[in-house]
């Protein structure tokens, strides 16, 4: 395994995903490409990575996506401070499992790492509507998929 780990992350997700990913990357001596998939956007043109909002009226303010990526970058930077792990953070658009798969193909990833959803009614409803990213990847992926179980964790332990 020589390609990086592609790790799906999202705001509010427990830091366990970043920690497990860092441990795996260190053990395999590979880098990490963290990816936030914005499901409120869809891919217009795949080659140019052009995307558009599904509901342009739903955005709070222009630049919110950039601020979100900046906050995620800060949290990851703090968590991985002091390590020699080479990492990057990218933003993709569209259905999460397909976006992770596309990125993994593009960077020739060794493995895809995602976290499970936390327990609760809201998470159950979201999974019923959107499906499970982890299950979709596990069934439609040629490369290994690592799934990090996420138990409820304190707020300060989140991205």
Description:
Helix content is 37%, strand content 23%. The strands form 2 sheets. The chain has a 5-stranded parallel β-sheet with strand order 5-2-1-6-7, with helices on both faces. α3 crosses α5 (133-139). With 159 residues, the chain is of the alpha/beta class. It has a single domain, classed as HUPs (Rossmann fold), CATH 3.40.50.620. The radius of gyration is 15 Å and the shape is globular.
Strand arrangement across the biggest beta sheet: 5-2-1-6-7
| End-to-end C-alpha gap | 28 Å
Decide which structural class fits the backbone. alpha/beta
What general outline do the C-alpha atoms trace? globular
Order of helices and strands: EHEEEHEHEHHE
Query: How does the major sheet shape up?
Result: 5 strands, parallel
The CATH architecture term is 3-Layer(aba) Sandwich
Radius of gyration, CA atoms, in whole angstroms? 15 Å
What top-tier CATH class fits best?
Alpha Beta
Extended strand count? 7
Classified in CATH, the superfamily is HUPs
């Amino acid at each position: 395994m020589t390609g990086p780990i592609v790790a799906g992350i999202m705001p509010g997700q427990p830091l366990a995903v970043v920690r497990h990913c860092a441990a795996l990357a260190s053990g395999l001596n590979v880098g990490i490409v963290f990816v936030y998939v914005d499901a409120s956007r869809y891919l217009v043109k795949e080659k140019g990575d052009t995307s558009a909002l599904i509901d342009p009226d739903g955005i709070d303010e222009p630049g919110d996506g950039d601020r979100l990526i900046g906050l995620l970058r800060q949290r990851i930077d703090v968590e991985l401070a002091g390590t020699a792990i080479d990492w990057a953070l990218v933003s993709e658009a569209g259905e999460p499992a397909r976006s992770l798969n596309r990125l993994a193909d593009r960077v020739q990833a060794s493995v895809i790492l995602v976290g499970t959803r936390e327990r609760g009614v809201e998470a159950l409803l979201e999974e019923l509507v959107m499906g499970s990213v982890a299950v979709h990847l596990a069934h439609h992926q040629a490369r290994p998929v690592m799934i990090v179980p996420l138990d409820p964790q304190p707020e300060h332990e989140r991205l």
